Amino acid sequence: MAANEKAKAKTEQASGAAKEAAGRLVGNERLTAEGSAERKKGDARQAKEKVKDVGKH
User: Where are the beta strands (DSSP E) in 1-57?
Assistant: First the structure.
């Protein structure tokens, strides 16, 4: 389960970063904000998984 969550975090981070960059490129503030939010969601998910890993050791 944890590997799945880690993969989901990486996917959200990459997808969010791409949306954010695309939004900036075309000047679409909504797309930029959406991408930033998605990237931050992935960052938070990754941080949560790291805390879980530390708790296991």
Answer: none
Quick one: CA dihedral 44, 46, 52, 53, positive or negative?
negative
Residue 1 pLDDT class (50, 70, 90 cuts) = low
Burial of 54 per CB tally in 10 Å (0-12, 13-18, 19+): exposed
Cα gap 45→1, rounded to integer Å: 13
> Using an 8 Å Cβ cutoff, are 14 and 45 in contact?
no
Q: Whole-model pTM?
A: 0.82
Residues 6 or more apart in contact with residue 37 via CB below 8 angstroms: 16
Q: How far apart are CA 45 and CA 36, in angstroms?
A: 14
